[in-house]
């Protein structure tokens, strides 16, 4: 298998609005990010996935783009962007841009012309119909919005300010490729492709994900843009199965480096229920099954995994699946260890490296996210109580991940000297970067070590994966390389668990506990996690 830089990379996701505010307007910006590159260099990450910073009316915090080749005023300007690129590259950090091309903003010049001049060629850049069908928006309600002037409806699979592009239109595709090349020429490290599995949609047949032309478009895009460069490309693909993921990421297919699949994330919700119907407790046996399936089915050279617990669309895994109380530090390290030692490219979401937690939303006045607000409106209309709605938002709402990064114990966690656009999590007084850096036992240093291991240890890429049989709440797997075997173990609970595996450990790779004692006692203490090189 041809090796690429991203096989040994760890990616760090930044949500620009919430990372660091450089000018006191309460909104994170590019200069703020640049000012934190030394911190990221210390963490050791290889690339930043930058959530959208393009010109946008910010209906969906930048996932509604009105100009792909300009920077949103709130984030700075192109000079700031070039400075960020230069400064990052100087530290060996690539910048992976978010590519949002399933839809634009309704304020993009293409859509404005399409709507205002119905006989313009731009009309066909979007999807217009005389009658709506049953398609619904991911942000609640119908996916069709009526346009009074022309008497037609346009499709928006997200907010009505995010009209879907018509990928069947060749000119649309060419314009997107030109724009991608514009960014590639600026020296970026790749693209994270927003809801890319939707671009092959057939709206009239109510097919949205994995439409018939999807892979043709991606092959065409690869050839027209990043295929000639060594870039990281990762598609956001909610419905991907291992077979579908292989289609995208098998190197022979010349499509993408990898995709984000969300099967494990599905365990947050009741089976086959809407995302807001959350599960109180994680089904650990099911999680193990899912890990094992993806690790073994995407064999070396056949495809490549992305490894992540959360992102800007998800609550903090530490709060929902770890322990944000007594065992916060230990469970955060455990989650990191068990994830990062699998095969794939790990993604750290900003703040996970210091153990940031969900926000205690009191009521809707604490909430900014369009998805949560639309959900609340619809759920209340349908008879849910405000308490039920708030429970769902506290557990699942996207703003949990979007509260400002916690830098120190000063007001607003040192994120801004002004008033933050979204309130800081009150936990900043104890959970912050300054405190983490000062404590050699902090979560930060576990992440730092995992990132370093990823660069140094070839077995993390090459070794096979084998799930080890254990009691329900223990996750254990082996990574088997020709010359060595590694055992990774995690107690996914706050209780002592039996650990009946005979282990002859020869070397500790990483640990959050006294692993020798755990192995000798055949007992794991709450949230124990470690990796040891073993003799068999
Ligand atoms: C993706 C993004 C999400 C956004 C949506 C529409 O799921 O991650 O934040 O709201 O696409 O662009
Ligand atoms: Ca700012």
UniProtKB/TrEMBL annotation:
Family classification: Belongs to the glycosyl hydrolase 13 family.
Top enzyme class: hydrolase
NCBIfam families noted in UniProt: PRK10933.1
Alphabetical UniProt keywords: Glycosidase, Hydrolase
Keyword Ribosomal protein among record annotations: no
Organism from which the protein derives: Streptococcus moroccensis
Gene3D superfamilies linked: Glycosidases (3.20.20.80), Golgi alpha-mannosidase II (2.60.40.1180), Oligo-1,6-glucosidase, Domain 2 (3.90.400.10)
EC number: 3.2.1.70
Domain Glycosyl hydrolase family 13 catalytic: 13-402
Record-given protein name: Glucan 1,6-alpha-glucosidase
Record has Hydrolase as a keyword: yes
Gene Ontology MF: a single term: glucan 1,6-alpha-glucosidase activity
Domain of life the protein comes from: Bacteria
């Amino acid at each position: 298998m041809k090796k690429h830089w991203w096989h040994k990379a760890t990616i760090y996701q930044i949500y620009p609005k919430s990372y660091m505010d450089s000018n006191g307007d309460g909104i994170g910006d590019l200069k703020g990010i640049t000012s934190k590159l030394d911190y990221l260099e210390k963490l050791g990450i290889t690339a930043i996935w930058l959530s959208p910073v393009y010109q946008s009316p910010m209906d969906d915090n930048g996932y509604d783009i009105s100009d792909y080749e300009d920077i949103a005023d709130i984030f700075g300007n192109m000079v700031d962007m070039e400075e960020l690129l230069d400064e990052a590259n100087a530290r060996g950090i690539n910048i992976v841009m978010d590519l949002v091309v399933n839809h634009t903003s309704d304020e993009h010049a293409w859509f404005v012309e399409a709507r205002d001049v119905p006989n313009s060629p731009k009309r066909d850049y979007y999807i217009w119909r005389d009658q709506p069908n049953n398609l619904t928006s991911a942000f609640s309600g119908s996916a069709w919005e009526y346009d009074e002037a022309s008497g037609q409806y346009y499709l928006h699979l997200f907010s009505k300010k995010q009209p879907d592009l018509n990928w069947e239109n060749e000119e649309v595709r060419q314009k997107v490729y030109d724009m991608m090349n514009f960014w590639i020429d600026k020296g970026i490290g790749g693209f994270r492709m927003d809801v890319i599995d939707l671009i092959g949609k057939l709206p009239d047949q109510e097919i949205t994900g994995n439409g018939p032309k999807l892979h043709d478009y991606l092959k065409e895009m690869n050839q027209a843009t990043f295929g000639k460069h060594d870039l990281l490309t990762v598609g956001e693909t909610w419905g991907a199965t291992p077979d579908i993921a292989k289609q995208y990421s098998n190197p022979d297919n010349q499509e993408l480096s990898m995709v984000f699949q969300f099967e494990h994330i599905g365990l947050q919700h009741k089976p086959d229920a809407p995302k807001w119907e959350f599960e109180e407790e994680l089904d650990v046996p099911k999680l193990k099954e899912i890990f094992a399936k993806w690790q073994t089915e995407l064999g070396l050279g056949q495809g490549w995994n992305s490894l992540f617990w959360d992102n800007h669309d998800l609550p903090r895994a530490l709060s929902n699946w770890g322990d944000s109380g007594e065992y916060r530090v230990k469970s955060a390290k455990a989650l990191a260890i068990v994830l990062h030692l699998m095969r794939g490219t790990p993604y750290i979401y900003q703040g996970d490296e210091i153990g940031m937690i969900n926000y205690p939303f009191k009521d809707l006045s604490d909430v900014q996210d369009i998805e949560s607000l639309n959900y609340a409106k619809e759920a209340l209309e349908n008879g849910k109580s405000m308490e039920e709605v708030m429970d769902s938002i506290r557990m699942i709402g996207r703003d949990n991940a979007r509260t400002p990064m916690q830098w120190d114990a000063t007001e607003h966690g040192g994120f801004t000297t002004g008033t933050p656009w979204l309130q800081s999590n009150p936990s900043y007084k104890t959970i912050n970067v300054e405190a983490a850096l000062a404590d050699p036992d902090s979560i930060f240093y576990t992440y730092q070590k995992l990132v370093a291991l990823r660069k140094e240890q070839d077995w993390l890429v090459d070794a096979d994966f084998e799930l080890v049989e254990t009691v329900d709440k223990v996750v254990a797997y082996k990574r088997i390389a020709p010359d060595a075997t590694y055992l990774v173990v995690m107690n996914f609970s706050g209780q002592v668990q039996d650990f009946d595996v005979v282990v002859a450990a020869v070397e500790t790779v990483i640990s959050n506990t006294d692993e020798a004692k755990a192995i000798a006692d055949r007992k794991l203490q709450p949230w124990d996690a470690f990796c040891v090189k073993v003799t068999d």
